[in-house]
Amino acid sequence: MAIPQHTIDQILDRTDIVDLIGQRVKLKKTGRTYSGCCPFHQEKSPSFHVYRDKQYYHCFGCQANGNAIRFLMDIDNRNFIDVMKELSSQAGIELPKDNQDNKKLSYKRETVKPQVKPQAQTQEDKNTASKTQEQNTEATPSFEIDPFEAFSQYPDPEHFDPTQFDQTGFVQAPQDGNLYDLLENIAQFYERQLPHSKVAQNYFRHRGLSTETIQYWRLGYAPEDWQHLEKAFPQDIEGLKLLGLIRTSDSGRDFDLLRDRVIFPIRDSKGRVVGFGGRALNDEIKPKYINSPDSEVFHKNQLLYGLYEGRKDRAQNWL
Ligand SMILES: [Zn+2]
Questions:
Q1: Which CATH number fits domain 177-318: 3.40.50.1470, 3.90.980.10, 3.30.70.270, 2.60.200.30?
Q2: Of all helices (H) and strands (E), which one includes residue 181?
Q3: What's the 135 CA to ligand 1 centre distance in angstroms?
């Protein structure tokens, strides 16, 4: 089930994080924040703060932080959907029902972590690391945070903006991909490649196509690289496979269906891109034409095929 971000925001707006956490943790109002002993680590003096205005919690002892969703997920070890079901019924907001049609068009997007250069460990990291180690060896009953030391180390919770400090505690909906969106992005990608290939540009020029015509038909170019789509859309591998634009070799290696070809996007009656035709750059290369295969959005033997053929006839003198 994909829950749109605006529904999540609406549910969070109607959820009071102080009430929610107050059911599990004894909270005391301390100025701008509510504080209590952290449920995520052992402590005797409260370093766990809940910010009603930000709808966020932050522990200065173990750095646990997040919104209402994160809190329920972490404290009960529950998954996102499960927590959203509870919060939505409390907030009186209905979650979207699974729509069979939408389901067919969606695929799981992968999370691709940005590559972070290794950095020198900061003092804070080292502190956290050593604390974690101590926590892991639960046989260290002497471990506790000295409140005086704690206050000299931690920022004043009153004037601390927890959301500035760490965004990782915000739980975003795991967004599913949509095949139409992916096809549109791929069409744009192929269009952007055309200026990089002299040969492909010459091909169109020799066919007498003007820049306007090329733009009107959204013609493009698929590069030679065997994995250009994988590199351009690393989160969308599942979608690319559903569209048949990625093939898997016998040795299990993924490669692009269309390589070093001029690209003709195939559009449906609504103008949405549903597939691609690729033509080799010279007649020696066989096959001369490759079309992307049938998919959830592209059925060559149905209405769309006729539409595509009609267009292809008109475009015949180009090919
Ligand atoms: Zn804590």
A1: 3.90.980.10
A2: helix 179-193
A3: 11
* Å from CA of 132 to ligand 1 middle: 11
State mean pLDDT over 146-155.
45
Q: Which residues make Cβ contacts (< 8 Å) with residue 165, sequence separation at least 6?
A: 58, 65
**Which segment of 7-11, 135-139, 249-253 scores lowest on mean pLDDT?**
135-139
310 CA to centre of ligand 1 in angstroms: 66
For residue 188, the CA-to-ligand 1 centroid distance in Å is 47
Number of Cβ within 10 Å of residue 228's Cβ equals 18
CA of 173 to the centre of ligand 1 (A): 25
Alpha helices in 16-66 (DSSP H): 17-22
pLDDT at 92: 92
pLDDT in tens, 221-247: 999 999 999 999 998 999 999 999 999
Q: Which residue has the higher pLDDT, 55 or 4?
A: 55
Domain covering 5-171 assigned CATH 3.90.580.10 in the classification: yes
